Amino acid sequence: MKVFGVLAACIMLLQSSVICRNLKVVPIEDKDYWYQEGKNRIQNQLTKKLSVNRAKNVIIFVGDGMGLTTITASRIYKGQINGELGEENYHSFELFPGVGLIKTYNTDMQVPDSAGTATAMFSGIKTKSGTFGIDATLPTGECDPAVYEAAKVDSILKWAQDAGKRTGVVTTTRITHATPAAAYAHVSDRDWECDSEIPSQYRDCMKDIARQLVEDSPGKDINVIFGGGQQQFGFGNGDGSCVREDGLNLTAVWEENRKAEGVSHRFVTTKGQMEELSTEEKVLGLFDFGHMAYELERENTEQPSIVNMTVKAIRMLQKAENGFVLIVEGGRIDHAHHDNYAKLALTEAIMFDEAIAAAVAMTSRENTLIVVTADHSHSLTFNGYPERGNDILGFAHNESDKKPVYETLTYANGPGFNVHRKEGAIGAEDYLWRDPTLMEDRDEMYYRHFAPIFEKSETHGGEDVAIYAIGPFSHLFNGVFEQSYIAHAVSCIGNFGPSKYLCNSSISVKAVSVLVLIMSYISSRLV
Question: What is the C-alpha end-to-end distance of the chain, expressed in Å?
Answer without folding.
Answer: 37
